[in-house]
Amino acid sequence: MHMRLMLLGGGSALGRALIHLGAEADISFLAPRPPEQGWDSASLTLLLDETRPDALVNLAYYHDWFQAETLDAARLATQERATERLAELCQHHQIILLQPSSYRIFDGTRATAYGEKDEPMPLGLRGQSLLRIEQGVRSICPRHVLLRFGWLYDDSPDGLLGRFLLRAERESVLALADDRRGNPTPVDDAARVMLAVLKQLDCRAPLWGTYHYGGHEATTALAFGQAVLGEARVHRRLAVEDIQAQPHAASPDAAEEPQHAVLSCKKILNTFGIKPRAWRAGLPSLLDRYYRHV
């Protein structure tokens, strides 16, 4: 790797996966510790004025954007301002910016897979914030890659997967939507994709723009939950005895979560040669890591 790489959010689940995968390929990241109050405009300005990397991966707010159960508007607004400042700094210092985003920027009314050219129309605060961040990055920093992920799952106890497994240990019956569809994406697979993008950008290929990635084989929330529980029972006895199908509209998060969240991955395949991996293949290692940590 010729480029000097900086990773904000190296302590996040996706950041750790990226560092681990990079180390296997002899690729290292400068991963500075965030200030006590977290990254903000002032601390980012000082950091990039001093370090001047060639490319930067922004996972500074990964957990909030992809895993947190609830977020308030003020917190998101602070993160938006900091990311806008980050884009300005990247443009000023001619740093390539790799910025993650999410299926949440779509409203989920389209039954077929969403492509990069489809019109965003987010439902909830998180999706609206991510869309504004996307728009800011595009307008401020031309040398960017925006990478929208499907349903991201990691091994953090307070993440999407962790909260689901905790309920499975405490409740005998769970209800999941059988008409909500998406692309489950284990965090290790997301890290693989990000590293593959960085490798090609290192070859000075000007492949700027927006790309979609999600695990192979779109599925329902119900079918994914059943697969997770099947793997979890290898590690621990669970209280849950039955998963009941419920309509998406009856789900507690229906107002914010798109019903149809399947992403088309043709563009990233045609541009970078990145093939989607089956999400089922990533479940055993993900669950193994989760249960080793809880």
From TrEMBL:
Gene3D superfamilies: NAD(P)-binding Rossmann-like Domain (3.40.50.720), UDP-galactose 4-epimerase, domain 1 (3.90.25.10). Pathway: Carbohydrate biosynthesis; dTDP-L-rhamnose biosynthesis. One of its GO terms (molecular function) is dTDP-4-dehydrorhamnose reductase activity. GO terms for biological process: dTDP-rhamnose biosynthetic process; O antigen biosynthetic process. Binds 1 Mg(2+) ion per monomer. Pfam families: RmlD_sub_bind. InterPro entries: dTDP_dehydrorham_reduct, NAD(P)-bd_dom_sf, RmlD-like-bd. Its cofactor is Mg(2+). Coiled coil: none annotated. Keywords: NADP, Oxidoreductase. Residues 3-291 form the RmlD-like substrate binding domain. It catalyses: dTDP-beta-L-rhamnose + NADP(+) = dTDP-4-dehydro-beta-L-rhamnose + NADPH + H(+). Catalyzes the reduction of dTDP-6-deoxy-L-lyxo-4-hexulose to yield dTDP-L-rhamnose. Belongs to the dTDP-4-dehydrorhamnose reductase family. This is dTDP-4-dehydrorhamnose reductase. It comes from Azotobacter chroococcum NCIMB 8003.
